[in-house]
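Work package 3, deliverable 3.1, input record:
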Amino acid sequence: MALAFDEYGRPFIILKEQEQKTRLSGLEAQKANISAGRAVSRILRTSLGPKGMDKMLQSPDGDVTITNDGATILEQMDVDNQIAKLMVELSRSQDYEIGDGTTGVVVMAGALLEQAERLLERGIHPIRIAEGYEMASRIAVEHLECIAQKFDFGPTNIEPLVQTCMTTLSSKIVSRCKRALAEISVKAVLSVADLERKDVNLDLIKVEGKVGGKLEDTELIYGITVDKDMSHPQMPKQIEDAKIAILTCPFEPPKPKTKHKVDIDTVEKFQTLRQQEQKYFDDMVQKCKEVGATLVICQWGFDDEANHLLMHQNLPAVRWVGGVELELIAIATGGRIVPRFQELTPEKLGRAGLVRERSFGTTKDKMLYIEHCANSRAVTIFIRGGNKMMIEETKRSIHDALCVARNLIRNNFIVYGGGAAEISCSIAVEAAADKYPGVEQYAIRAFADALDAVPMALAENSGLQPIETLSAVKSQQIKENNPHFGIDCNDVGTNDMCEQNVFETLIGKQQQILLATQVVKMILKIDDVISPSDY
Amino acid sequence: MAIEKILKDDASEEKGERARMASFVGAIAITDLVKTTLGPKGMDKILQSTGRGNEVTVTNDGATILKSLHIDNPAAKVLIDISKVQDDEVGDGTTSVVVLAGELLREAEKLVAAKIHPMTIISGYRMAAECARNALLQRVVDNKENAEKFKSDLMKIAMTTLSSKILSQDKEHFAQLAVDAVMRLKGSTNLEAIQIIKKPGGSLKDSFLDEGFILDKKIGLGQPKRIENAKILVANTAMDTDKVKIYGARVRVDSMSKVAEIEGAEKEKMREKVKKILGHGINCFVNRQLIYNFPEELFADAGILAIEHADFDGIERLALVTGGEIASTFDNPESVKLGHCKLIEEIMIGEDKLIHFSGVEMGQACTIVLRGASHHVLDEAERSLHDALCVLSQTVNDTRVLLGGGWPEMVMAKEVDELARKTPGKKSHAIEAFSRALVAIPTIIADNAGLDSADLVAKLRAEHHKEGCNAGIDVISGSVGDMAELGISEAFKVKQAVLLSATEAAEMILRVDEIITCAPRKREDRM
């Protein structure tokens, strides 16, 4: 009770409550939090694995998204509960850090919370549970390193990378042509990767989509596409060996930032001003021509006159190109972004082997392809598909596959998928639990149980008997001391993941376990929830 | 403690069976809505907009109907989306794609009720779609080499497409129009070069194809009404007061006489501009923007035809057909490319005067003038013609052709059925369902024509058991007929797009097991 008495015996209120605030405290708060967290993970549980189902989300504006990407589902879900928001954050941070496994991490956290609830009921203090989880997660991560395998690939031998990307893609709607998409992703990543430094800048890969055609038409373009067309309908549609001037200044008379007024009070002034204006346009176009540019890409618009002058000088131009695209073009062509006409020099021009305009379908959709750039490291993945939702979902899937390929280049250790890694960790944690004296032992054991949740969900989604399958695989792993056994989701006939070529990255798995543990610890430590009550 | 509410107040969540139910119901409702418009005897729909004026549209174009619907069901939105894409990509088959997707879902619903997992259904559908596509590929006819035959193919396709539209009465006439127009394009799919002008009055039969270009504008007063061997300058420039574009400039004067001086200067400027334009040696000037009275007068004095305020598309097209460039500055007349045409004259269509450019340089362009009793008829005629043009232009690029009248569906269904018999496991149910969904299309066509669909489709199926059969539904006589003899053809590209998009959409909806709807964004009340 937030009511105290001062030395004269008068009551005063420390914390105002009842009307404005609702308050949950103690065990009740923890239970409420846990059930909220579990509710979120329950939503995602059915999306796990190659046979996972999709969710249809309708946004406040009525747009429909169909996806089975955990991070996307949670992001669009309009969550109100604070703890549920934590779970959303969890999946988002996995997305930022690793890019894949966003569903798995939430399922994992949900399982940990479920186990924690049982321990709480037995009267174990939440902090002790949290500590036990912490220890267990450390054991699991170390164990993962033990069972991880290094695998080699090179620019010529991309097969292993393709296999890993295929594992990621097989759980998405694009699984129909996962092979082709995986190859595209791997090629894209390899062409921008810096293999020496083991670094990949994913910003150099642009994923573009255009409705129409079919998924098989998706292609990798060694260059950049811009969703714009030439500013004048009669400019040439194809330019070879283009020298590109990249401008962020409009083809217009300058607008000084300071306030000023030009007063016209005589006829002479009127005429000089007119000539001045014409000179501006002439100068600008001349400037571009002089440095030898054969294509002008401008962030701003042009005046009609400027447009015609450019056309006249046989200088094709593109206008209203967005900032991000402009940067990408600059990177790809090796040009510099020029903010003023005065600073335009031949060295600052970008180079591209081929620039062409392409049109699609029956409507007037046009896109500009900039290919064979000086710096060939910028690539574009151009997705075609039957409808908008399909394209969006493919974009997300490609993003995941790209992230996986990048992670492998950074760290080429893999673990086996299909729940094999989780089962193996669970066995290791279970064995280690007995060595710990004290209450933590229970928490560690609970952690081992929670690890089983992922393979269990996989089996359930694939229409197998979850408990039966899991125990069979587990005993097989122990008996043969081989961490390659997982759940046979696709009904191939073998549950050796090594044969099925189902891999996941080591850092992805580790991150999943660490992130899930952290969030669960945080949730367990909350023992008081004060929120404004709605009325 | 009960499960915490984790979503916002108005947001809702539907899970498992109920979610699937909701999407099936939504998708099937949409299908039933457009189903009756399928085929040559399909019926039209009246759409009334809620906007100002409550405009009315009468159409049987699937994409147009679906575009105008306000739908709340997310699954239905998926179907609307595929029909839109079909429209953008190939232009025709917008109804068929929705109907096929709907039928696939209807079959899937039965399978789900029989406790077959959606994922199994999906993999069955995928196999079936692949098999169906191969079946079509084997039976396509490609007359690319034989120009004469190809032209008759195009003609047949155009007639088939048009026969389900309002133009079916005069389908031969319009098919000829469409084929002529598309042949002029010489393989490009740029339909912009075909201009469609709608003028109420007369009857649909009075519509015609014009080889030149028609601009819906009037010729300025006192200017020549007819020019032979015209040199045309197409421009986009201000012919009112030429504004000073330098930022912050303004006129500030202290006496009336100064005002007059400046005005004089302005006039002088305009006069100079006109002179420069005249310096190009032209006798026709077309501007996108307004031409004020003063310059117009100057043009009239010089005996030049000046056309003002041609719309943006018009200008581009005009530049395209006459081979000129769109000019905005006039300082170097020698390097500006002028457009040419043999004859410019004012013509009358119905009550309206139009400007007709004939004998243009680029042979690609042409204009189709549609005549008809009312705006609604014309709008619908334009949509139908557009569909036909789209299909034809796509066919010119991909010359493979199939027979129509439910023939492709029966061919696919037969092959898919064979596959089902060979496939072990639960998938075979899904494959069988796919073939049933395919057969649904000829059934609906027959139903819409008021025929005994069960009898006809059964006969058709029997016919198709023979090798190399060309049987399809002949809606006119109400019996099974030889499609090759009747000259009913469809473009392969359209059929393939219908098959693939419909399967994709059905798959997408099947995969969903949960629908989460966010609270609708609150709109401020506009009182």
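Chain B touches chain A through 87 residues (CB under 8 Å).
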